[in-house]
Amino acid sequence: MISQPVPGVLLTDLYQLTMLESYFEHGMTETAVFEFFVRRLPRRRKFLVAAGLDQALDYLETLRFDGPDIEWLSASGRFGGAFVDRLSALRFTGDVDAMPEGTVFFAGEPVLRVTAPLPEAQLVETRLINLLHFQTLIASKAARLVLAAPGKLLVDFGLRRAHGAEAGLLAARASYVAGFSGTSNVLAGALWDIPIFGTMAHSYVQAHDHEADAFVSFAESRPRQVVLLLDTYDTENAARTVVRLAPKLASIGATVSALRLDSGSHLAHSRAVREILDRGGLREVGIFASGGLDEDEIAALLAAGAPIDGFGPGTSLVTSGDAPSLDCAYKLMEYAGRPRFKRSEGKATWPGAKQVVRVTGRSGSMELDRIVLAEEPTSGGAPLLRPVMRSGRRTWRESLADSRSRAAAQIAALPRYARRLRGRREYPVRMSARLEELAQRIRPADTAQRDGAPAFDELVGDSTTR
Q: Are 67 and 117 contacting, i.e. CB atoms less than 8 angstroms apart?
């Protein structure tokens, strides 16, 4: 059975370990609550799609310092022997509540909440952000591509341009959750049963003396659902070659399902190729486009009537080229039973463990999200964070098909303005009165409000939709 390679616990920032040693030395091991959230949406995003929870839970459930980790830490000379010895028995024993994968969410909303002894909850910060940030980033980009090409085949072609092997693998997974039809990534297919797609490269055509020979050889080897690449030399001439070869290919049982365009004017070439195919009696053969496409180009092509049946976005998808990062954070909200919060200007956090309640209209369309304290009643809406781990053991598992269905349903339930690729109108997110009152009432012991000091709402600034 193929398994996904999993980085060890040392894939973290040094300060997680230095804080951990100090927490242990000073007996600071009471229960803490941390939350992962996105401070603000990128300029061209009206919503985000949660992804990466499955990998995050696997990481927490299997967290441990193995023999080589302990040996390296001891040999590094950075830490005391008692601390290193203690790490060998450390496991994650906490609780996690989270938005299931495929959930649509907005700025300021907690996506995942960790409740655990302070050292455990702190240690996992770096890897949790690493996993949740990337897949959410890609799923959110993929969702825009899905909105740009409704009903079209969309295939992730981005592995070769991804920022490393894990990024390429997880991008295939995240894009599938968001509604892509599949991926070219073979390992993603093996690990998660994601449909895999492939055609041929220009080099295959170039390796043959004649383009027609390349087409016939490929069809002989792969007679079912043949996809041929047209633009190695002359796109329209290649389409005419396919029409001319059609009887021969049919005689060997080969079925050409589509032709791929990878360069030049996709609009002009798709129109010309479609006309050639139709005149040649190959109306059932589709046209698939790749080559540096993003959602704006795809939307423009379809608006112009390009007869293209599917697209293979690559670089723009796996790098989320127009918005390559999210301003996300994992912050302490409660420790030892007391609410905690930052008052950093522009990065202030709302205190206490929280829940997100979604209010929908009679038609099922999303109308409003409310961020409330976790103990508040959630009547009048649906709570989005669900129990997914208790006492260090997973309590939530679902298939990618379930996550994918959730994403499709929630994107469809967005207000029309939130599904448009452009526009400035924001989906409303409100804080509960009890949360606002708590934020105004509590003060860290060493930062009591002074005359002229900014109020909490001024510190928050635009970091949360009000």
A: no
Residues near 196 by beta carbon (within 8 Å), at least 6 away in sequence: 182, 183, 184, 185, 186, 188, 189
Residue the block writes with tokens 């390349």 = 214
Cα–Cα nearest to 228, from 244, 215, 217? 215
* pLDDT tens figures, 321-371: 999 999 999 999 999 999 998 887 778 899 999 999 999 998 999 999 999
Estimate the crossing angle of helix 125-148 against helix 53-61, to 10 degrees: 160
Question: From 3.40.50.10490, 3.20.140.10, 3.40.50.2300, 3.30.70.20, which CATH number describes the 14-138+323-460 domain?
Answer: 3.20.140.10
The architecture (CATH level 2) of 139-318 comes to Alpha-Beta Barrel (3.20)
DSSP-assigned states of every residue in 191-211: HH---B-----HHHHHTSSSH
Task: State which amino acid sits at residue 241.
Answer: T
Beta bridge partners of 328: 38
Nearest 10 degrees: Cα torsion 347, 436, 462, 409: 110
Per domain, the residue ranges of the chain are: 14-138+323-460, 139-318
- Is the fold of 14-138+323-460 the same as that of 139-318? no
Residue 434 near residue 373 (C-beta atoms within 8 A): yes
The stretches of 225-330 forming alpha helices (DSSP H) are 235-251, 266-279, 295-303, 315-318
In whole angstroms, give the CA distance from residue 227 to residue 225: 6
Chain mean position to CA 73: 33
Question: Do 314 and 161 meet the contact criterion of CB atoms below 8 Å apart?
Answer: yes
Which pLDDT tens digit goes with each residue over 114-133?
Answer: 999 999 999 999 999 999 99
DSSP label of 453: P
